[in-house]
Amino acid sequence: MYSLATFLLDKIPFRLPPHLYSYVSGVTPLSTNKAVFMALTSYLVIIFSIKAVMKNQQPLKLTRLFQLHNVVLSSGSLLLLALMLEEILPMIWNHGLHYAMCSEHAWTPRMEFYYMVNYYFKYQELLDTVFLSLKKKPLQFLHVFHHSATALLCYTQLNGKTSISWTVIVLNLAVHVVMYYYYYATAGGAKFWWKKYLTTMQITQFIIDLFVVYFGTYERVAFNYYPNLPYIANCSGSGKAAAFGCALLTSYLGLFINFYFQTYKKPAASKKSAANGVANGHANGKANGKLNATT
Known about the structure:
Blueprint: H1 4-10, H2 18-21, H3 33-53, H4 63-95, H5 97-102, H6 109-124, H7 127-134, H8 141-160, H9 165-187, H10 196-225, H11 239-264, H12 268-275, H13 280-291
Helix pairs in contact: 3-7, 3-8, 4-6, 4-9, 6-8, 8-11, 9-10, 10-11
């Protein structure tokens, strides 16, 4: 059957080295602990260095460059989402949802390539923080932690070959299609009434993520260590990678819920001050800066 994946992957007029379309630990770019540690450390050094340099400088606008960055991530997320669904939906139809989430056979060569592309997207997304630094926007802990930790999460799941990974990635890609379009449009002056629902989408995403990954981890533990417990079948992948994913996604949910209430659910006293015109300028600046943390 001719498909989008066939057109994009099988008919390309050149052949890449195997380690660029299959994940080979230690050979594929950014596939070693040292390389990932250096990349993420460099990210932190760069953004805080920019922040220090920009302290006495005027903020840079960089509107066109920022819009291009967001167009690439929004459209790239949409394309990758379509490719992953094209591979996953027939698998669900033919073998069932549990097979698609947990079977070792669900880790197909194409899915592995898509996981690699998604992993490299996480390094491009680090540029979000570079733009924030150059624009002299606040660097929220949630933003910096989320960006760096998500690259690490994708790295661990590639190494652990957790077949359930696509459930988390598909939801994340869907959110990113909307989110990066939002940042593209608002950089050009567009106004949207639904900006707070981006955070709601992310919170919903993490709730679903946690249900799925905790279920998969339970299946694996029950199958391998407690066979007397009820389970359907084993869920393939490294136990350490699964545990790390559960812990990190749990922290994301807590941080994003806290962010939501800090940003959109103002205490009564703050609302009263804002109504009197005392805190309007401060509150607006704080809200605009905090919204960037959700990227």
